[in-house]
Amino acid sequence: MVREGTFRNISGCAISGIFSKSGRRFSGKLIMDSIATMRERSNGLGGGFAAYGIYPEYKDYYAFHIFYDSEAAKEECEKFLDRHFEIISLSKIPTRKIPQITDAPLIWRYFMAPSPVKLAESNLDEREYVVRCVFRINSTIDGAYVFSSGKNMGVFKAVGYPEDVGRFYRLEEYEGYCFTAHGRYPTNTPGWWGGAHPFALLDYSVVHNGEISSYDTNRRTIEMYGYKCMLKTDTEVIAYMIDYLHRKKKLTLNEVGTVFAAPFWSSMENMPEQEREQVEFLRNAFESFLINGPFSIIVGFEGGIMALNDRLKLRSMVIGEKDDMVYIASEEAAIRIVQNDLDRVWSPGGGEPVIKTIEKVKTMEKIRTIEEGMLQCV
After folding, report:
1. What is the torsional sign of CA 147, 150, 74, 128?
2. Catalytic: 13?
3. How many CB atoms sit inside 10 A of residue 42's CB?
4. Domain range for residue 222?
5. To 10 degrees, the CA torsion angle through 293, 213, 190, 96?
6. Number of folded domains in the chain?
7. Mutual orientation of helices 253-260 and 273-285 as an angle, nearest 10°?
8. Assigned domain for 333 exists
9. Does the residue 9 lie in any domain?
10. Residue tagged active-site, from 13, 77, 133, 178
């Protein structure tokens, strides 16, 4: 038997995403069937899913999914949560015992709102307050790890093949408008529950196939802005950089894609002047956020999904569409297994962000743009 570490699988890891542009909710079984098709791309050391729209009854509350190594860690963490949040509901995350998934930690779920008193004392906006609480737990409470912290969404991950992870978490019982999935083939870090994909912060989640050679530069840069990278994996860094650029710096997701996979300087020379000036500005302003190395990523966020390849397209990615449904995967077979009758199927170019959002979200963005224009005129 060839052992891990004695060879490198250059195409290892599988990613998949399914999204409804109308916001229609569908069963998690679809994404399980899709990712299972690419089983040979992973090695059983990590699998996981991000699901959006699954908690409509608690849609106004932050859903924390937390791993605990011990009851002592759980007790300490819950004391922190009691001081900083108003807990609406808490429970174990439902799972089923299967022989393929072993050594599970304690897995709990909390629906919460920030404590009004603590939030006012912090002088922070609500989302920044939640982010700082997440990092506080993960960096100071030994044996506690918040691996999901968004509203009306959740991450489900473990050590195992992704289809087994889905069965373990009973993912087929959830319904959402967007699911992403990952089958892991770790090359530089060990397989453990916290290191499985997706990586998430607030409503942003990332699944990633590739290997980022700029990891150290990206990590040192994002840590300067208060983010704590403790999981020793490049995908964690991508999630935090998206949060910083999109939530804090207010870049659009198209601009985030341009920062991550910036065109080469030689390519910029042939761009129209206005486009070239914008791209050059982003390249210079966020130089240390450039991602080098082969990668393909799927980003989930509230109301949408984004797919992005590295600028040389060194990792495969295929996109298919049928009516209001969008399918993204490392291989076309993972799309065809759940929807063979496609209206369109294509592979995006290197560095070309593909962004899909719920139609009503687009309408609201147009309204906000019009309102902002009117205010500027006044």
Report:
1. positive
2. yes
3. 25
4. 14-54+152-376
5. -40
6. 1
7. 70
8. yes
9. no
10. 13
Residue 147 in domain: no
Classify residue 151 by its DSSP letter. B
139-144 contacts at long range (C-beta below 8 A, 24 or more positions apart): 139/228, 139/230, 141/73, 141/76, 141/77, 141/80, 142/69, 142/73, 143/68, 143/69, 143/70, 143/72, 143/73, 144/66, 144/67, 144/68, 144/69, 144/73, 144/74, 144/76, 144/77
Sign, Cα dihedral of 127, 242, 348, 264? positive
Q: What's the pLDDT at 230? A: 83
Q: In this structure, which amino acid lies at residue 62?
A: Y
Q: What is the pLDDT of residue 139?
A: 95
Beta carbons of 346 and 327 less than 8 angstroms apart: no
Closest among 194, 269, 189, 266 to 233, alpha carbons compared: 189
Nearest to 45 by CA among 167, 207, 183: 183
Give residue-wise pLDDT tens across range 21-59.
999 999 999 999 999 999 988 888 899 999 999 999 999
Beta-carbon contacts of 3 under 8 Å, excluding residues fewer than 6 positions away, are none
Residue 63 lies in a domain: no
* Strand pairing report for 295-301 and 199-201: unpaired
Collect all residues with Cβ–Cβ distance below 8 Å to 72 and sequence separation of at least 6: 143
Q: Which of 328, 298, 308 is nearest to 18 (CA)?
A: 328
